[in-house]
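Milestone 3.1: sequence recovery, worked example.
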């Protein structure tokens, strides 16, 4: 595991963008696993800036997102599809046909999970997976549980997650109760993992995840077993570690 210290959110974003752009420059056909939420928005902004300068070409990459809320239409401004389109895809030359996100409107969970697992397999796996971390240690929407869920599944969101994500909705009651998420096996099979954390609020869970026992009670703790994990975290998030 490599832990890179970043001075602040911007420094974290730039360092992470550097790692992702190196991946895309070295392998123009990379399969890039993407995340949503507040943490990676600065990374996407930086990548857009470099794209506009002509430094990166996204035309041949494929992207596969971690998760999507159930019951939210892709064109609603709360969907993760909308987030990805607005914050990244519409600004770069990625082929939208090569971007994959679970379909939150598919009511048949078994069908959707199978479809998404097949997509990941057909892409040949993920070259680099970008991750944020939830306050409860979730990665994707793999919530603390009694066992690690292997592949794409429909998850009941934890109260903590619903509370944390209520900031993107008018009220807590409007946050979907369920989501589709890539499983732990799919994440762990990514060739490289890039975990980001920013702010003091993430410091305890980051410490527990990286140095505590490996347990499904702290889903991110499984990342300790990955042999190419890079953590980029800012001073606040690293305050329990350094
Ligand atoms: C988002 C995702 C989540 C977030 C996590 C942290 O696609 O999979 O695991 O990374 O909830 O969210 P932020 O970055 O908003 O603190």
């Amino acid at each position: 595991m490599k832990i890179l210290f970043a001075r602040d959110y911007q420094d974290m974003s730039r360092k992470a963008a550097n790692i992702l752009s190196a991946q895309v420059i070295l392998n123009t056909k990379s399969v890039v696993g993407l995340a949503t939420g507040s943490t990676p928005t600065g990374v996407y902004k930086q990548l857009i800036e470099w794209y506009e300068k002509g430094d990166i070409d996204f035309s041949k990459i494929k992207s596969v997102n971690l998760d999507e809320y159930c019951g939210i239409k892709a064109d609603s401004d709360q969907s993760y599809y909308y987030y990805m389109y607005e914050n990244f895809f519409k600004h770069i030359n990625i082929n939208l046909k090569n971007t994959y996100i679970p379909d939150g409107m598919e009511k048949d969970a078994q069908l959707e999970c199978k479809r998404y697992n097949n997509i990941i397999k057909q892409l040949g796996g993920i070259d680099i997976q970008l991750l944020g971390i939830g306050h409860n240690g979730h990665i994707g929407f793999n919530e603390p549980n009694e066992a690690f869920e292997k592949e794409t599944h429909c998850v009941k969101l934890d109260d903590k997650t619903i509370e944390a994500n209520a900031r993107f909705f008018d009220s807590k009651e409007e946050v979907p109760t369920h989501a589709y998420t890539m499983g732990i096996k799919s994440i762990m099979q990514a060739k490289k993992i890039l975990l980001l954390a920013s702010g003091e609020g993430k410091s305890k869970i980051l410490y527990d995840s990286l140095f505590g026992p490996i347990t499904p009670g702290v889903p991110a703790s499984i990342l300790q077993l990955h042999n190419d994990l890079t953590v980029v975290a800012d001073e606040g998030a690293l305050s329990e570690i350094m």
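The pocket of fructose -6-phosphate is lined by residues 35-39, 66-67, 132-134, 138-141 (CB under 6 Å). The chain has one domain: 2-234.
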